[in-house]
């Protein structure tokens, strides 16, 4: 099934995983600050109530960013982290040691909102503020015990957050690789093409999209089994890795189709490159029934707004190459 033209693909996996705690904590923090502002107003503390509402406003903005703008998750997390610090210090100033449980929650939450290198100094700032406010930590009953609990919470939060950040990175790697060939998969291709389209609009490069397809791949599977087909895919991936230049990238799109994102300064350069790949595969790729060939369709970037439109031009060239007898190359300009 060919990709249809349309808007960019959804955000990457780590971004989705990072947004989950943010989307949970942000509205809770906003609601808590609004309730706290109402309580302060009921206590006839109008200035403090306004200060709480001033903290609730950026928390509400962080909530909106977390749910609506996936590209602004880092900003939303930082904003909410700062709100946590300010809100807890405000509560401690008015409630004394009764605000300590909320501060402990904020210390833990900050590790899940932002990276450790931001959460740690933010939490140290909050801790310093709590120590500076009389009646919060500097009391005979709470001094040692509270500091010990805070140290344990910060240590546990730091360690757990670091582990989760590593897991997110590992999940992104696994989600972006094809299990059989080890090449980047369609998800990685779509994300890369979106980035390349943005670069192309600024005139920073000349790129070409090459789609290649194993000729008569169904016959290989039908006559010799899926193991033979899998072996052919793995061997083709290895050949492509050897043939590509350092600046080129290859992806397994799905099935027997592979996609190359190649730097090509001109149509002639692209034609020479694709023909070299075709010849190399013809000479090196063999299956139980003999040699295996590929057909290639290529298209220079021509100012498309969406990667799907660029892909469609290369895909049309591929179908023409297969219609011309296979084991051939067609560049989109040839379709004229």
Describe, in plain words, how this protein is organized in 3D.
- Keywords: Membrane, Transmembrane, Transmembrane helix.
- InterPro entries: Diguanylate_Cyclase, GGDEF_dom, Nucleotide_cyclase, Rev_trsase/Diguanyl_cyclase.
- Residues 205-334 form the GGDEF domain.
- It catalyses: 2 GTP = 3',3'-c-di-GMP + 2 diphosphate.
- One of its GO terms (molecular function) is diguanylate cyclase activity.
- The longest helix is centred in the middle third of the chain and has 33 residues, at 143-175.
- Mean pLDDT is 83; it is low at 5-11.
- With 336 residues, the chain is α+β, with helices and mostly antiparallel strands.
- The protein is built from eleven helices and seven strands.
- A hairpin with a 2-residue loop joins strand 2 and strand 3.
- It has helices at residues 13-42, 46-68, 73-95, 100-113, 116-132, 143-175, 186-201, 217-224, 226-243, 267-284, 307-323, and strands at 207-214, 249-254, 257-263, 286-287, 290-291, 294-300, 329-331.
- Strands 2-3-1-6-7 form a five-stranded mixed β-sheet, sandwiched between helices. A two-stranded antiparallel sheet has the order 4-5.
- The protein has two domains: 13-175, no CATH class; 186-335, Alpha-Beta Plaits.
- Helix 4 packs parallel to helix 6 and helix 8 (217-224) packs across helix 9 (226-243).
Short description:
The chain is built from eleven helices and seven strands.
| Shape summary | elongated
Helical coverage, percent range: 55-70%
How many runs of DSSP E, i.e. beta strands? 7
Number of domains: 2
- Name the average pLDDT: 83
Helix run count? 11
Q: Which class do the helix and strand fractions yield?
A: alpha+beta
Given as residue ranges, the uncertain stretches (5+ residues, pLDDT < 50) are: 5-11
Query: Rg from C-alpha positions?
Result: 28 Å
Side by side, the strands of the main sheet go 2-3-1-6-7
Q: How would you spell out the order of helices and strands?
A: HHHHHHHEHHEEHEEEHE
Q: What's the end-to-end separation, in Å?
A: 25 Å
Our estimate of the beta-strand percent is 5-15%
Task: Specify the biggest β-sheet.
Answer: 5 strands, mixed
């Amino acid at each position: 099934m060919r990709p249809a033209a349309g808007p960019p693909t959804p955000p990457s996996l780590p971004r989705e995983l990072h947004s989950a705690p943010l989307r949970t904590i942000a509205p809770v923090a906003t609601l808590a600050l609004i309730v706290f502002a109402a309580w302060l107003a009921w206590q006839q503390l109008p200035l403090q109530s306004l200060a709480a509402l001033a903290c609730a406003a950026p928390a509400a903005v962080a909530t909106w960013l977390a749910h609506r703008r996936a590209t602004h998750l880092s900003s939303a997390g930082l904003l909410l982290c700062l709100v946590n610090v300010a809100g807890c210090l405000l509560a401690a100033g008015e409630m004394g040691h009764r605000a300590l449980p909320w501060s402990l929650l904020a210390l833990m939450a900050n590790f899940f909102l932002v990276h450790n290198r931001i959460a740690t100094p933010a939490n140290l700032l909050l801790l310093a503020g709590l120590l500076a406010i009389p009646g919060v930590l500097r009391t005979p009953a709470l001094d040692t015990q509270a500091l010990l609990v805070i140290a344990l919470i910060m240590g546990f939060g730091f360690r757990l957050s670091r582990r989760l950040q590593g897991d997110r990175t590992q999940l992104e790697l696994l989600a972006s690789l094809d299990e059989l060939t080890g090449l980047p998969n369609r998800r990685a291709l779509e994300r890369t093409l979106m980035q390349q389209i943005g670069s192309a609009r600024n005139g920073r490069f000349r790129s070409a999209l090459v789609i290649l397809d194993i000729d008569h791949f169904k016959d290989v599977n039908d006559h010799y089994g899926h193991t033979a087909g899998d072996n052919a895919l793995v061997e083709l991936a290895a050949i492509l890795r050897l043939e590509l230049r350092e600046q080129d990238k290859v992806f397994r799109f799905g099935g027997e189709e592979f996609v190359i994102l190649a730097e090509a300064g001109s149509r002639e350069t692209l034609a020479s490159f694709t023909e070299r790949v075709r010849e190399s595969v013809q000479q090196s790729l063999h299956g139980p029934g003999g040699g295996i060939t590929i057909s290639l369709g290529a298209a220079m970037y021509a100012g498309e707004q969406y990667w799907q439109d660029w892909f469609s031009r290369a895909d049309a060239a591929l179908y023409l190459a297969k219609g011309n007898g296979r084991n051939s190359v067609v560049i989109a300009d040839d379709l004229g």
